[in-house]
Design brief:
This protein is mainly α. The protein has 19 helices and seven strands. It folds into two domains: 95 residues, no CATH class; 286 residues, no CATH class. A hairpin with a 2-residue loop joins β4 and β5.
């Protein structure tokens, strides 16, 4: 497929950054020769080249929305390159420039209110942390049982996505694998051609209660669905080479994670916990309580913002990592093992800013789709070039 000069240069510079930051290029399924012939550049040279490409983009005859999308992507890439070149960038400024969002500290009173709700939902003996740990343990399943559950959820999510939301590419496929020793809980590796490999980390216990959301997040109608549709419609359909490659720490990640965190709600809605109790939990001998699960999940979602606070503590305020672990345990009601896994994620160089994409993405996209036809707007997110400041402006 013929790719124009600007998107070819975009791909070349993405691979130039990848030579310095392994994992920056998350997926590539474009012309092999562009990857093979990507130039090695020093960081300062990458910064200069990205600035020049932004000027070329502004002077191009691209549609305005495509210009805005690529402008935001290039700004994110340039931020990574500037850090590689030795420039000191304040942590909030780095998050802001990488993702086209405003990072904010969530008041601890918000977490206290969520935990007060959990106090009422989980009566009994012991501290709230002990009670929530007991609740979570009641959903733990073996890897073998988890694989059975995942297969059932994936089939249902695929069917609901295709019939209720949007037509999927022909012959799309998702393979699931259990892995270990990763900083994340789940990951979609998009392989191109409508195929994905989803890896689920077993470093922490696998819980039946979180599998529906995880499968929808990573596969249908989350990451896999978005990647497969944009490959077909934007790259193959229009020849837009920027959609033959996926990058980390750029604004597209906020859109992608926002889609993924809303995915289960878009196809299951209020039916999610009832369906899981009837179709999934019996595979593991678990008896569900859908109404209470839904209320607990709503209260716990608020706690997702905690990771952003933890990252600010670590990278902006210079807090001792052990204090960050205690902070996560205190407000997030996490075990020490879980808190250290969270610390590992926000400490990993590639992911140090990424945690904001989840809750900011869900909040931003959730507010945007609520202002119109939810299904139609979600389809737009899955198929069009969108970026955070564009949604804020709308």
């Amino acid at each position: 497929m013929q790719i124009d000069a600007i998107s070819a240069a975009y791909i070349d510079l993405a691979f130039a950054i990848e030579r310095h930051v392994e994992g920056f290029v998350d997926a590539y399924f474009g012309p092999p020769e562009l990857k093979a012939h990507a130039k090695h550049r020093e960081p300062a040279e990458i910064v200069t080249a990205l600035a020049s490409l932004r000027e070329e983009l502004r002077a191009s005859d691209y549609p305005q929305q495509r210009k805005g999308y690529l402008e935001s992507q290039l700004r994110g890439m340039e931020t990574t390159a500037r850090r590689l070149a030795g420039e000191e960038i304040a942590y909030r400024d780095e998050v802001r420039a990488c993702f086209d969002i405003e990072p904010a500290h969530t008041p601890e009173a918000v977490f206290d209110a969520a935990n007060a709700e959990l106090e009422a939902l989980l009566p009994g003996q012991g501290s709230l942390a002990e009670r929530i740990a007991l609740w979570r343990r009641s959903f733990e399943v073996s890897p073998e049982v988890a694989q059975q559950m995942i297969a059932v959820i994936a089939a249902e999510a695929h069917a609901r996505t295709g019939t209720e939301l949007i037509a999927l590419p022909e012959n799309d496929s998702v393979e699931f694998a259990l892995v270990s020793d990763k900083p994340w809980s789940g990951y979609n590796w998009y392989l191109g051609g409508g195929r994905s490999l989803v890896e689920i980390n077993t470093d922490l216990p696998i819980r039946a209660g979180s599998l529906l959301d995880l499968v929808c997040h990573e596969a249908y109608p989350g990451h896999h669905t978005e990647h497969a549709l944009k490959e077909r419609l934007l790259y193959q359909g229009r020849g837009w080479g920027e959609h033959a490659i996926q990058l980390i720490n750029v604004p597209e990640c906020v859109i992608s994670e926002g889609i993924a965190t809303l995915a289960a709600d878009m196809i299951f809605g209020d039916d999610a916990y009832v369906w899981a109790a009837e179709q999934i939990y019996p595979l593991g001998g678990i008896v569900g309580d859908p109404e209470r699960e839904a209320r607990i999940a709503k209260a716990q979602w608020v706690l997702r913002a905690l990771s952003g606070n933890a990252a600010l503590l670590l990278h902006e305020q210079g807090a001792d990592p052990e204090d960050v672990v205690r902070y996560i345990m205190r407000y997030g009601l996490r075990s020490e093992r879980e808190a250290r896994q969270s610390l590992r994620f926000i400490s990993t160089p590639l992911w140090r800013t990424y945690t904001f994409t989840y809750f900011v993405g869900r909040d931003l996209l959730g507010r945007w789709i609520a202002q119109g036809d939810r299904v139609e707007r979600f389809r737009q997110l899955l198929t069009e070039q969108m970026y955070p400041s564009m949604l804020l402006d709308q």
